[in-house]
Amino acid sequence: MSEITxxxxxxxxxxxHGLRAFLQTxxxxxxxxxxxxxxxxxxxxxxxxxxxxxxxVVLMDLVMPELDxxxxxxxLHTELPDLKIVALSSFSETERVHAALQAGxxxxxxxxxxxxxxxxxxxxxxxxxxxxxxxxxxVLARSMRTSPAxxxxxxxxxxxxxxxxxxxxxxxxxxxxxxxxxxRTHVSHIISKLGLSSRIQAALWAIKQGIVTIS
Length: 215
Hints:
By secondary structure, the chain is α/β, with parallel strands linked by helices. The chain has ten helices and six strands, in the order βαβαβαβαβαβααααα. Strand 5, helix 5 and strand 6 form a beta-alpha-beta unit. The protein is globular, with a radius of gyration of 17 Å.
């Protein structure tokens, strides 16, 4: 089992220490650094990017001084687009969730999540798959507008079903015998056609519309 490296960003030392203590119990996870605000996180991760020592996953608190989590996620997503960032918050309001996902977060966890949920989110992010806290997923699903499924071609519906099952672009490409670039283009077109802002919202839309069911 390959090691997953994690970087923790939170302005509360107790939260950082608690997350580190839990993650140390996971045999395949290693915490490689911490930051106490978004500004410090951007500085540290930018430096790591120049030395090819970026972590696999960043756990990013959203409410912090200096630079908040959404601002940090946006900056890092622009400068280091391959970095996987899971937002970590005490709040599940639609606006806050949308802001984090639109900034570039690949997942969203609540701070009262079970430890297993944290592990699942980290492993999903490392595999380039999305992971939402169940309560957050329900909030997003209720807030999404309904768009006609007929706007999608048969191929796009196939791609969307695979997105909803948590597959990465490369996994979609392998399943449909197309290139990764073509899969990525299909996903972008789907998101645009449905008037959404992320593949996470597209996955939730597919589930809500019955295109795919999640057991």
